[in-house]
Task: structure prediction
Amino acid sequence: MTDLNGIAPVLFALFGVGIGLALRSVIAAAAIRAANRRAAAILEEARQQQSSLVIGAKGEISRLRAEAELAQQADREAATAEGERLRLREVTLGERESFFAGREVAIAERERTLVDESVALDVARANVNTRLAEVAGLDPEAARTEVLSRFTEEAERETKRLQATLERRAQEDAADRARDMILTAMQRVAADHSAEHSVTHVKLASDEMKGRLIGREGRNIRALEAATGVELLIDETPLQVTLSSFDPVRRQVARVALERLMQDGRIHPIRIEEIVAKAQGEVDADSLKNGETAALKVGVTGIPTELLRILGRLQWRTSFGQNVLLHSIETAQVAGAVAGELGMDIRAAKVGGLLHDIGKALDHEIEGTHAAIGADLARRHGMPEGIVNAIAAHHQEVECTAREAPIVQVADAISAARPGARGDQGEAHLRRLEDLQQIALGFEGVEKVYAVQAGREVRILVRPDQVSDEDARTIAREVVKRIEEQLAYPGQIRVTVIRETRAVDYAR
Result:
């Protein structure tokens, strides 16, 4: 019993160890089976990936093989086409070589024919010369001398005729230029027509002021005239002094100076020079202000200050009784409206219209027509060439090369021709146009006469069967001469003689 009690624990211990070993064996076997399953899964996944890679590689190889076959096919087709083109070119070159070879043969044949014909012609010419010498009784050398002599005489006559024609044209051109200069001078000093616009009347506080203006032995009036360049006319007219000058700016300076002197009361030569200098500055400032106001009314900017100052002088200038500055503003507004309707440059048209008569502010100081003076002035102050051409061509003195030029011409004519714009009376204007037409109708061969552009141009249509080209030039000169002798007019009048030849036939 005692031995059993001692062995039992040992048995239990051994049993526990056996159970533990058995459990460990079971756990180990389960772990081995799980590891085998994971290894099998990994192996299967690797096998599937390998299969996918193989399939993809086979597809890529098939695609590359197909693309290579297509590229080879395209290269073969291109090579075939290039070969065909080269073959056709060789055929064409062969045909052209054959053609040129034929042409060379034909040219050689033609050269032989021409040589034969030249030889035959020389023989015929020799025979003709021999026959002519026999008929004329002259040997060939004498006949050649006679022909050359006649040709020389004819050439000399033609040279003299051409020389006379050139001399006549030069004289006509010189006469035309001289006539233009005379007309320009007449425009500046046309006293009978513009007397009412070349004087300024100044009111006096009393007749005693006349004596103070004259001064002792006339020294005050001489000093005033010398400082202003204006003639003072002091006559029997009560409470009035007349300032006479064709330069409106000088008259304005003299008027301002005279009013300042009468307000100051100190009238002597030194004071006169001081007041005239101040009046000149005031007039210059007023000129700039007038020019800026005009540009503001028109709605344009960027015009040089000096041009605005000169433009402002037109405030004291009139033409046909029309204030030139107001006429310029109106022309600019009309030109802008026309340009807007036509979809053209509105600003360029406005500036051209505003400056088109700016030359009238300087035409008493610079030689030339006011259009040419204004164009040169605008060009020297950096204005665009389109505006310069619009100023120069607004009286058709030069050709219109800018798009704005015809617009300024039309706007100028509209402003000048509108009712009430100018001081010409209707009857006098119509009578002047009738006189122009009657002068032209007095010549033989004249069919119709038109006085256009308010009498600034006369267009004469002549009968071509009665009047030649030379006669047309003669009629133009004679009409100009009679207009200068018989009519009084401002500016210049252009005479154009038109000779038109018509060929008429009938089909029956």
Notes: Confidence is low (pLDDT under 50) at residues 181-197.
